[in-house]
Design goal:
5 strands, 5-stranded parallel beta sheet, globular, mainly alpha, single chain
């Protein structure tokens, strides 16, 4: 709020200050206040005046809003003006990776590392582009980390990149040490209010009952949305790619538009993206207006196909609201073995989401809350959405892909089995993996690290979450 007030003061003194407007747009997006972000972003665009730093920041805001193509255009404007600016080049490389332009990404990162050999973000992205075949890059990163020049987020980038390549080389013990070092470094940069999350989940269980759903059936009857929800790293992207390989379905990516529509309608100005207050107020929102707002604000992102997929995992929190606002939408919930799910998040460096994932016990407790909430949704609304196990899809693709397409009431197309050949953007940690055929290599991966993951397992079992044979 301090930064919000400061940049707001600048724009009052100088309404043409493009940089201040762009900073405000970024802050509003992160604060979950999209209505204010929209206006600030438009002002930033109107007043960017060819300033490459403002252009790069506008690109960042578009990326946060899920529009990677628009973001790439702005990143390119900035990088073209200042090709020696490492930050601009890394941002463009990251965007190209999301869009599947992997050769362009690698070429740009090599240029960056020629200019700045120790750039941690470039090393991290480069490590994720392909499977490591030798220890050349591993040794390079180890030497850089050993200098002691990396702290906080920089150390997190380097450590997660190192862990990923060590895991590729099946050096399990060293990989865990790198992931743990990265997680500790990242956790130290974050504020995570676990009690607020506990309060929110309790408020939701109290508020969103079957009676609440049936009290008002006047939602917005648009059949085009397909929501894929769950925890991150549980196969949501795999399922989304199977579905969007169908000629009648467009991949819209991970959209924040549903939650943003709620915040706009209640003019939410709370301090967090999620809160008990937000969820309680959302229950009184006009369902038809909410559905219409979501459909309207996704218009530019959902292509020309009759259907589109929104695969933001955390939309599981809004599942009752989606059912009420969009009664003809389809919802698919992905489930995965809790230890595999938790460890897969723990060993992944996220952008500004999932602050609970960098500590084993915090991760496990979060998963337990998610598990109980989904159990409540299943008990109350289970006839209105579909649940799919990642392990089933990965190990036996065709019958499960056919079942997904049948649930969506679409005719079968063989292209759904060749999902990895798609060119559309993937703005998730799975951006490289889903461009390959389905495989089972990640099933049970946590057992390679079983001794090191005792705190995670203990916490899950203490909360009654099954972690055994899935």
């Amino acid at each position: 709020f301090t930064a919000m007030r400061a940049f707001g003061s600048v724009t009052k003194l100088d309404p043409t200050h493009g940089a201040a407007w762009a900073q405000l747009a970024r802050i509003f997006v992160r604060a979950g206040q999209p209505a204010r972000a929209d206006g600030a972003l438009q002002k930033a665009i109107e007043n960017e005046d060819g300033n490459s730093f403002v252009q790069d920041l506008i690109g960042l805001v578009f990326a946060q809003l899920g529009d990677q193509q628009e973001a790439l255009g702005w990143y390119t404007k900035a990088a073209s003006q200042m090709p020696s600016n490492v930050m601009f080049r890394v941002n463009r490389a990251n965007c190209n990776m999301f869009l599947g332009n992997l050769e362009d990404t690698e070429e740009e990162l090599r240029d960056v590392l020629d200019m700045q050999p120790g750039n941690p973000n470039a090393h991290w992205i480069l490590a994720g582009l392909k499977k490591a075949k030798d220890r050349e890059h591993v040794e390079e990163m180890q030497k850089l980390i050993a200098t002691g020049n990396y702290q906080g987020s920089s150390l997190a980038f380097m450590s997660y990149g190192l862990g990923k390549e060590l895991e590729d080389l099946e050096d399990w013990a060293a990989a865990y040490e790198a992931f743990a070092a990265g997680a500790e470094a990242r956790r130290g940069t974050l504020d995570y209010d676990e009690q607020a999350e506990i309060d929110m989940c309790r408020a939701m269980e109290r508020t969103y009952t079957r009676q609440w759903l049936e009290d008002d059936r006047t939602g917005y009857e648009d059949p085009s949305p397909i929501f894929v929800v769950g925890q991150p790293r549980t196969g949501t992207t795999l399922v989304e790619r199977i579905i969007t390989a169908h000629s009648q379905v467009h991949s819209a990516g991970e959209l924040r538009q549903f939650g943003n529509a709620i915040r706009r309608l209640i003019d939410y100005r709370g301090s967090g993206r999620f809160s008990a207050e937000l969820m309680e107020q959302a229950a009184a929102v006009d369902a038809a207006k909410l559905g219409e707002a979501y459909i309207r604000t996704t218009q530019k992102l959902r292509g020309d196909s009759p259907r589109f997929v929104d695969k933001l995992p955390s939309n599981y929190l809004y599942l009752p609201l989606i059912l009420k606002a969009l009664p003809n939408a389809k919802i698919i919930h992905l489930r995965r073995n809790p230890m595999d799910a938790c460890f897969s998040s723990f060993k992944q460096l996220f952008a500004d989401a999932y602050p609970h994932s960098y500590d084993q016990r915090e991760m496990a407790r979060h998963h337990a809350r998610y598990y109980r909430l989904m159990a409540a949704w299943h008990e109350r609304f289970g006839d209105r959405f579909s649940e799919v196990r990642y392990e089933d899809v990965a190990s036996n693709l065709e019958p499960n892909a056919r079942a997904l397409i049948e649930y969506l009431e679409l005719p079968w197309e063989d292209a759904c089995l060749d999902f990895h050949k798609q060119k559309a953007a993937v703005t998730t940690a799975s951006t490289v993996q889903v461009r390959k055929p389905a495989h089972t290599k990640s099933i049970g991966r946590w057992k390679r690290y079983e001794e090191s993951l005792k705190p995670m397992r203990e916490e899950l079992e203490a909360h009654g979450i099954p972690v055994g044979d899935w």
